[in-house]
Design goal:
Chain B: This is Autoinducer 2 import system permease protein LsrD. The structure holds four protein chains of four kinds. In chain A, the strands form four sheets. In chain A, strands 6-7-8-3-9-10 form a six-stranded mixed sheet, with helices on both faces. In chain A, strands 16-17-18-13-19-20 form a six-stranded mixed sheet, sandwiched between helices. Chain A is about 35% helix and about 25% strand. Chain A contains 18 helices and 20 strands. Chain C is mainly alpha-helical. Chain C starts with a helix and ends in a 31-residue tail after the last helix. Chain C is globular and about 70 Å long. Chain C is built from 16 helices and two strands. In chain D, strands 2-1-3-4-5-13 form a six-stranded parallel sheet, sandwiched between helices. The longest helix of chain D is centred in the N-terminal third of the chain and has 17 residues. Classes of the chains: A alpha/beta, B mainly alpha, C mainly alpha, D alpha/beta. Chains B and C meet through α1, α6, α9, α12 and α14 of B and α7, α8, α12, α13 and α14 of C. The complex binds adenosine-5'-triphosphate (ATP) (2 copies) and magnesium ion (2 copies). One adenosine-5'-triphosphate (ATP) sits at the interface of chains A and B.
Chain lengths: ~500, ~350, ~350, ~325
């Protein structure tokens, strides 16, 4: 390894959010002129580390140095000023501003009288986009940009800073193969110019392709740092997971029964097209695809929180009224949404209130809801799912992600559903809980529940599903049986621009 | 697992509502001791009569604000219902019919607001600023220069009479009934839970099968109908139906509700707090007037109380846990960057001017 | 910017509505526009509201609101008169500057509570609405400033015309141009839009959110102070109740002018046109034969109509954008659904406590 | 009648307390009447306290009436914002032992003990018509700029003026009655609107002090100065400037100071039990001399006084 002063040095950095220790001991040393991969499971603390480097969070403990100088950023502005550019995992664009304004916000080129020079700004954006090989109108509002385009805007913004350290948190998650290659070319150019780049991705092939060094994190701690050439993907996975992968997916075999959920020709302008599939009792159907492929939208439309333009949803032989979640619930549908903080839970409410949120009408006697009935239901289900919380009236904001997810599951299982749709059921959940959730889903399916599982984690889909549907650009691109569903087959079907050398980790 | 993290008395005492109730009690005790004339029986009578309309309207307003919306048109509905009630009486209709029609009209006014907010998705603040002008305009337009008077004594007396020899006006019973109904609805029915859930996260509520739109519509209809009822009371109390009745009362109602501990962002609030908030404003006004303090000072006291009641818990809470970036008034849940939110250091991450 | 895109803007619609109102009314009563007085009143009547609306627009763009403007106007108008009485030797310009400074201070007070305590602007400014008004009432008591108390030269500002344009209209126009220029071409101006568009993203970007909020409230306060001076000059009498109830009219004008109440979009020009439209309609109604009493109803219907129209236009646009994603194959993977529209004000993090159920 | 003991025990006849409740605070007209009240109180050895709402609405007046009842003051002197709306509150105050005198703007007679009338309604209506007719040469269009649409006294005068116009002034046409709500800004804007919508307008009559000042101010700086006559009821201080610059030829008013003085004298006489408010009762009112209670419990101050260039310098209120 080179011995120059590292551009970035983090040692023993820790960060907790209330009771959640997101980062216990983050260590990362990035040399100038190198591209450094940071890998780890969901919730390993990668984004938290990045946010500390970018000045979004302040560390609780540890050392952060830039070019050998200790730094302590009080805000993103200071990090930016110190030459750190960060592409955060969730793009944060301003829908009301134009693309060009989004990119140059706060550092617009100025003309006479300190007035913004829009022409120069537009030219600058065109130049950036030319380098990235994309074709976006700098003057269009950011409102309505696809996730991929938002990501591109973020990338352009970060690159335009010309920083000594560029950190990219899963920039490729939403990009097509072509765009990924262009991004890599830009990153290599920066490296060759002596900049340091940190690259986070769940796709290990990308890591092998682009990076020279790789750091593995697990449960908020540093596990290892090696030259990419020195480790195999299998080794990396084992370090990330901390145990053998197989036991994570305790699949219980079951025999599918009759069709419970049937979706026919579902269509929504700009989002998904001609979506048809069915789910049988006792079956787990996986819905795979790239982020932004439209899987969540399909689930939301089926459940009724979104409307659709054409097609129909049939549950237990009866047509489901569209745009009416209450009807869906009555028909036996349940949806564990992908964003538990925003959609799954009323985080400001207590465990008890969340668990009883859907069932409370059933619990009421003469219209009056007795706290006892509510507490009994909550105690029952949170006990069954082993929710760890101080008390039933504890507010869920402070709970760990895994426990929050269990509360969401408890809420829906308490309704006694026939079909359970789970969207990213284990996102941001630690390994132990993950296995628990998998075991639970598997058991429920064995008891005759129909499960539709959306997941961006390929191993999860492959490990749990009896059948895999692959969504690409809002269309069902392939249906694969458990036997046919290899990582390669799924990725090939999922990636737009045909079957280029994409393969899964 | 335990059901409660704290014993019941701590849970009851450590609420925002208790603060308002405590201040109310202190104000009452101090006024009784120090203000001449305050401890007389007339004080209670006048207090109840004076706060009645604000209290009535504050009840549905509590539910609306608890969902994170607002209804600024209430005082205009009071005016409009006062006018319809008067005109129908003038036209020779029975007062019960007039009352019924006025309340129905109020419900319709509320339904218009509700439809625009819930189904057309328009911001309630803007919509009800518009309907505030619209309904007041209709009221003033309908009655023009005149006021309708000459309501039967039996009705006007009913609005102000005391219960037997007690200092409590008859309407106290009605008020208590309304308070009880709204308290039960908000705190002990699934509907009330829906209301609070919508205020905390309307997105999550929708994903739990709550019909957010219908709930909002119901609340606005309720607000319109109760405001209209308050309008009828107003008319009878003053024996005069006028288009400009209760002008500006919307801000009094909102101030009382917020003083009672309801969060303007929604999701938090309790009826007993709001009742205390309404009474607190009434008691302060009554005591200060008895002391010969003029309206101006009363305005200052009420305004400061409002600001302090919002800022103080913030500062107190901020010392315990520095909380997240809510620098900005009514705002949507962020679509992204969930991580940036829970940051306990958010305070320092925001707005570092160089 | 091309002529076509200029015509398609939201402001063009309001301008058109304004022209129609003026046109129809003039056709019925030519003096409405074609007499010296008509022309003057057309320009003069809205000038104070224009100044207030432009200031309010800046605050609303940041996803806040300032309900205390009416009270600030009252206080500064009275201050103006008081200064003329108590310090008759002060030049008019100094008096005006003192009043503007006082407005700025009051605005800063609002802004700092909102920005530092992080509490909703609606509540805070509702509180200061009462407080500022109370201060004026206490200070003024039954006192009133009469025309005779103020210098003629100052009162002249309220009525004098230069080149056929009233002085106050000139002032309003200068304010409008300056603020519009700032909002459109200054970095700080664009940041106000960013803050209103997504406050959390703005913080994540490292924008100086607090400083900008303070600045927005201060600017609004300063303009309310200026409006107070204009009020004193135009009406010649200032009592402690001056400007009472003006806040809702101002917010109404801003909303009619196409400034979204949830921040992030709208222009100063729109707000100014909204103010002109409201007051011109007010004056036109009696001329076209609609009695006085119905004016407020028409104004209310207009406000509601304007917001509804905005929503229809926004829906059309997002549908178009969604359809566009299907039409031209996007560079990236498939487009996800656009953001849900509207969205209630929630999740801004009040205290983490369950409300008492007992 | 629960306040009897408290009121009687504490004060009795020697300690007369009077509450002065004008339509609203911040109105120079009432400032003058309160000054008169204080003058009278001082002469009588009574105490007078002025209270009132910031806006002229009846519902805002009620709490102050209630407060007076709670305090058990000897007498309440009030200018009513509505003839009936404050009636109940006044009755309760009276049953608590407080004497009620209305001045300037009356309630219905059963709600008060006395009404001190500034001038008879006929007198006021006649005087204003006389003034406007003189100023516009006896013919043409005129408009009225009133206070709020519900003001009792305004409406009574306007009704009388309309009658008189029809019978005695056939060549004068009343084209519109506008309402300025006793608010400067509204009155000012309403004046502009009146002139706008009636290009042939010859004169404006504003029977309210706020309205006439606003109208005069608008006209004085417009092209209408000297062409459109402005008259009505105003205070000399507010109107001096416009009389001197020729915008206004003449206007009328009684002396509000005297009005407050007389109302307070009457209130004290009631409180002392000297009079009961019956028709024919007489009482001594300090510097104003002796007054007799007329029909319906009315006490008449006198004829309105006309102010013009020749005499306006002699007054300061
Ligand atoms: N603001 C926060 N408040 C509470 N917990 C948080 C917060 N941000 C992150 N966490 C928790 O900290 C842990 C680490 O999260 P982080 O986002 O850093 O993971 P990650 O490695 O980036 O995962 P992914 O691969 O899914 O992006 C998770 O358990 C997460 O739920
Ligand atoms: N332009 C946008 N503005 C706001 N939110 C968006 C936008 N695009 C996508 N989203 C949201 O981001 C989330 C992820 O995208 P989406 O659901 O379309 O893809 P998906 O196939 O379900 O991907 P995944 O579930 O793997 O994240 C969704 O909740 C969607 O509503
Ligand atoms: Mg991450
Ligand atoms: Mg998804």
């Amino acid at each position: 390894m080179p011995n120059a002063t590292p551009t970035l040095r983090l040692e023993g950095v820790a960060k907790s959010f209330g009771p959640v220790a997101a980062l216990r001991s983050g260590t990362l040393i990035v040399q100038p002129g190198s591209i450094h991969a940071l890998v780890g499971e969901n919730g390993a603390g990668k984004s938290t580390l990045v946010k500390i480097v970018g000045g979004v969070h302040r560390r609780d403990a540890g050392v952060v140095e830039l070019d050998g100088e200790p730094v302590d950023f009080h805000g993103p502005a200071e990090a930016k000023a110190a030459g750190v550019a960060v592409i955060h995992q969730e793009p944060a664009s301003f829908p009301d501003l134009t693309v060009a304004e989004n990119i140059f916000l706060g550092r617009e080129p100025l003309g006479r009288f300190r007035r913004i020079d829009r022409r120069a700004m537009r030219e600058g954006v065109r130049e950036l986009f030319r380098n990235l090989g994309v074709d976006l109108d700098p003057d269009r509002p950011a409102e309505g940009l696809s996730i991929a385009d938002q990501q591109i805007v973020e990338i352009a913004k970060a690159i335009s800073l010309d920083a000594r350290l560029l950190v990219m948190d899963e920039p490729t998650a939403a990009l097509s193969a072509v765009e990924v290659r262009r991004l890599f070319a830009v990153a290599r150019g920066l490296r060759d110019a002596g900049h340091a780049v940190v690259f986070i991705s769940h796709r290990l092939d990308e890591v092998a392709d682009l990076c020279d060094t790789v750091t593995v994190m697990r449960d908020g701690e540093h596990v290892s740092t090696d030259a990419v050439a020195d480790v195999t993907p299998d080794q990396l996975v084992r370090r990330m997971v901390g145990r053998e992968v197989a036991e994570l997916y305790p699949k219980v075999p079951s025999t599918p029964g009759e069709v419970v959920l049937q979706v026919e020709g579902l269509e929504s302008t700009g989002t998904f097209h001609d979506v048809s599939f069915e789910v049988r009792a006792g079956e787990i159907v996986g819905l795979a695809g790239l982020v932004g492929a439209g899987r969540s939208e399909i689930a939301r439309a089926v459940f009724g929180v979104d409307r659709y333009d054409a097609g129909r949803v049939v549950v237990g032989g009866r047509n489901l009224r569209q745009g009416d979640p209450a009807a869906a619930i009555a028909a036996g549908l349940a949806l564990v949404p992908e964003d538990r903080r925003l959609q799954g839970l009323v985080t400001e409410s207590s465990v008890a209130r969340n668990v009883s949120a859907v069932s409370r009408r059933r619990l009421a006697r003469l219209g009056i809801l007795l706290p006892d009935a509510e507490a009994r239901l909550a105690r029952d289900w949170s006990g069954r799912l082993e929710v760890k919380a101080g008390a039933l009236d504890a507010v869920t904001t402070t709970m760990s992600g895994g426990n929050q997810q269990k509360v969401v599951l408890a809420k829906w299982l308490a309704t006694g559903p026939k079909v359970l749709i789970v969207d990213e059921p284990t996102r941001g959940i630690d390994v132990g809980t993950k296995a628990e959730v998998h075991r639970l889903l598997s058991t429920l399916a064995a008891e005759g529940l129909a499960v539709l599982m959306i997941s961006s984690e390929l191993p999860e889909v492959l490990g749990m599903a009896d059948r895999v549907l692959v969504v690409r650009e809002g269309r069902i691109a392939a249906e694969l049986s458990r036997a046919e569903a290899t990582p390669e087959a799924v990725m090939r079907a999922a990636t737009p621009g045909a079957s280029e050398s994409e393969s899964a980790a | 697992m335990r059901t409660h993290a704290r014993p019941w008395w701590q849970r009851a005492l450590l609420t925002r509502e208790m603060l308002t109730i405590l201040i109310l009690v202190v104000a009452w005790v101090v006024a009784s001791a120090a203000v001449q004339g305050f401890d007389g029986p007339l004080t209670i009578t006048y207090l109840v009569l004076d706060v009645a309309p604000v209290l009535l309207i504050a009840l549905p307003m509590t539910l609306i604000i608890a969902t994170g919306e607002i209804d600024l048109s209430v005082a205009s509905v009071v005016g409009l219902s006062s006018v319809t009630f008067g005109l129908l009486h003038q036209a020779g209709l029975g007062l019960w019919v007039a009352l019924l029609v006025s309340v129905l009209l109020g419900a319709v006014c509320g339904a218009v607001n509700g439809a625009l907010v819930a189904y057309a998705g328009l911001p309630s603040l803007a919509v009800t600023i518009g309907s505030l002008a619209l309904y007041r305009g209709l009221a003033v337009g309908l009655l023009g220069t005149t006021a309708v008077t000459g309501f039967p004594e039996s009705w006007t007396d009913g609005a102000t009479e005391n219960l037997g020899e007690s200092p409590y006006p008859v309407i106290t019973l009605g008020l208590l009934l309304m308070i009880a109904v709204f308290a039960v609805v908000l705190h002990a029915t699934p509907f009330g839970r829906d209301v609070l859930d919508i205020g905390r996260s309307s997105e999550a509520a929708r994903f739990s099968g709550v019909d957010v739109k219908r709930t909002l519509l119901i609340l606005f209809v309720l607000s319109g109908a109760v405001s209209a009822l308050a309008g009828v009371y107003y008319t009878l109390r003053y024996g005069s139906a006028r288009g400009d009745n209760a002008t500006g009362m919307e801000l009094q109602v909102v101030a009382a509700v917020l003083l009672g501990g309801v969060s303007i962002f929604g999701g938090r609030g309790a009826i007993h707090g709001v009742v205390a908030g309404v009474l607190l404003i009434g008691v302060l006004g009554s005591a200060l007037r008895l002391e010969g303090v003029t309206v101006n000072v009363i305005n200052i006291v009420i305004g400061s109380a409002l600001v302090v009641s919002v800022v103080a818990p913030r500062i107190a809470g901020g010392l315990r846990v520095r909380r997240r970036s809510a620098a900005i008034a009514p705002h949507e849940p962020p679509r992204f960057a969930a991580g940036a939110h829970g940051d306990p250091d958010g305070g320092s991450a925001v707005g570092q001017g160089t | 910017m091309s002529v076509l895109s200029l015509l398609r803007r939201r402001e063009a619609g309001i301008a058109l509505a304004l022209l129609v109102v003026i046109g129809v009314t003039t056709a019925i009563q030519p003096g409405f526009l074609l007499s010296a007085g008509g022309w003057r009143d057309l320009l003069l009547t809205p000038s104070i509201l224009v100044v207030l609306a432009v200031g309010q627009a800046v605050v609303v763009i940041t996803r806040n609101v300032d309900l205390s403007v009416g009270s600030v106007l009252g206080l500064t108008a009275y201050l103006t008169g008081r200064l003329f009485i108590d310090a008759p030797d002060l030049p008019i310009v100094v008096v005006a500057l003192v009043a503007v400074a006082a407005g700025t201070l009051l605005g800063l007070l609002n802004g700092s509570i909102v920005a530092f305590a992080r509490v909703p602007a609606l509540v805070i400014t509702l509180g200061t609405l009462y407080v500022y008004r109370g201060v004026t009432l206490t200070w003024a008591g039954s006192d009133r400033i009469d025309a005779g108390d103020m210098p003629r030269a100052f009162l002249g500002l309220g009525t004098r015309q230069v080149l056929g344009v009233p002085v106050l209209t000139f002032i309003a126009a200068i304010v409008l141009v300056a603020v519009a220029y700032y909002l459109y071409t200054a970095r700080g101006g664009r940041q106000l839009y960013a803050i209103g568009s997504d406050p959390d993203a703005a913080a994540l970007q490292g924008l100086p959110v607090r400083r900008r909020l303070l600045w927005a409230f201060a600017l609004n306060g300063a303009l309310a102070g200026l409006a107070g001076v204009m009020f004193a000059a135009r009406y010649g009498t200032v009592s402690s109740g001056a400007g009472a109830g003006l806040e809702l009219q101002v917010v109404g004008a801003v909303v009619v002018g196409g400034v979204a109440i949830f921040g992030g979009s709208g222009t100063a020009v729109g707000a100014a046109l909204g103010a002109m439209l409201l007051l011109t309609i007010n004056r036109a109604l009696p001329v076209v034969g609609i009695p006085d009493f119905w004016q407020r109803a028409v104004v209310g219907a207009l406000i509601i109509g304007a917001i509804a129209l905005d929503r229809v236009l926004a829906n059309r646009r997002s549908r178009r954008l969604a359809a566009a994603r299907d039409a031209e194959p996007p560079p990236g993977s498939a487009p996800p659904g656009s953001a849900p529209p509207g969205g209630g004000p929630n999740d801004a993090g009040p205290d983490d406590r369950e409300e008492a159920t007992a | 009648g629960s306040g009897d003991e408290g009121g009687g025990g504490g004060g009795g006849g020697d300690d007369v307390t009077i509450t002065m409740l004008p339509k609203n605070l911040g109105n120079p007209y009432f400032e003058a009447s309160t000054a008169g009240a204080e003058e009278a109180a001082e002469e009588l050895g009574a105490t007078v306290e002025e209270v009132g709402p910031d806006a002229a609405s009846p519902d805002a007046q009620v709490p102050f009436i209630n407060t007076a009842a709670q305090q058990g003051v000897s007498a309440l002197v009030v200018s009513a914002n509505d003839p009936t709306a404050i009636g109940d509150a006044l009755e309760e105050a009276r049953s608590a032992g407080t004497k009620v005198v209305t001045f300037d703007s009356d309630t219905e007679p059963q709600f008060r003990d006395l009404f001190v009338n500034q001038a008879s309604a006929e007198g006021i209506a006649d005087k204003q018509l006389e003034l406007i007719s003189d100023q516009i040469g006896g013919e043409g269009e005129i408009a009225i700029l009133s206070a709020s649409a519900n003001a009792t006294n305004q409406n009574a005068w306007i009704a009388l003026m309309e009658e008189k116009l029809a019978s005695d002034y056939p060549d004068i046409e009343l084209v519109e009655t506008a309402y300025g709500d006793d608010d400067d800004q509204t009155s000012f804007d309403k004046t502009a609107a009146l002139l706008q919508s009636h290009p042939d307008l010859k004169g404006i009559v504003s029977p309210t002090t706020v309205g006439i000042a606003a109208a005069a101010r608008y006209v004085s700086t417009s092209e209408y100065k000297g062409k459109v006559a402005v008259t009505g009821l105003g205070t000399p201080n507010q109107m001096r400037e416009y009389v001197e610059d020729g915008t206004v030829e003449a206007f009328a008013l009684w002396n509000p100071n005297d009005l407050g003085y007389l109302a307070t004298q009457a209130a004290a006489a009631l409180a002392a039990g000297d009079i009961t408010g019956e028709e024919g009762d007489t009482f001594e009112a300090g510097r104003l001399g002796e007054f007799t209670v007329g029909a319906d419990g009315e006490v008449l101050l006198g004829e309105p006084y006309v102010f013009d260039k020749s005499n306006i310098a002699d007054f300061d209120f």
